[in-house]
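Support reply, case 0932

Customer input (verbatim):
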Amino acid sequence: MKSAMKKIPLVVALFALGAVWGSAPVWAEPAALKQPVLISASTLEGGKFDASTLKGKVVMVYYWSTSCAVCRSHLAELRTNLAGWKNKPFALVTVNVDADAAQWRAYEYIAGQTQTVRPISVWESKGASGKLPITLVTDTAGIVKYRYEGRIAPESWDSVAELLP
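Our regenerated output:
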């Protein structure tokens, strides 16, 4: 089931989500964030994730953990949609929140050997507690339109597709 989100720019939403992991994410108006809380995300190659590369795209940000069976099983569905929208301005960013990056890197190594469609994969070093997976979907202007906890219902994919130009 989809739930409407306040309109928060993607970068602010990522910073806010990274700052408030706990039993449930808490959302703040962008004006309330005097200084952005920087998310410490690393790419598989060890570089820093740059959200500005997503400008002009519909973006799905998927927070997950290798210890979460629902999270792992949902990745195949996400990759299928990514493949279907390969000619559209769409990006899938999977943000792993394991406490130790080694498990994430091992998972991504195996996935890289068996899967041709790959999302943008990053690791957020703060780890997480609370209910996973969490998914944010933005429009091409970077405004968060939808937020999901747990599995994304099949009919919700139509709402994501409607954001694509």
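We compared this against your earlier run and they match. Two observations from our side: Helices lie at 10-19, 69-84, 101-114, 156-163. The two ends are 23 Å apart (CA to CA). Please reopen the case if you see a mismatch on your end.
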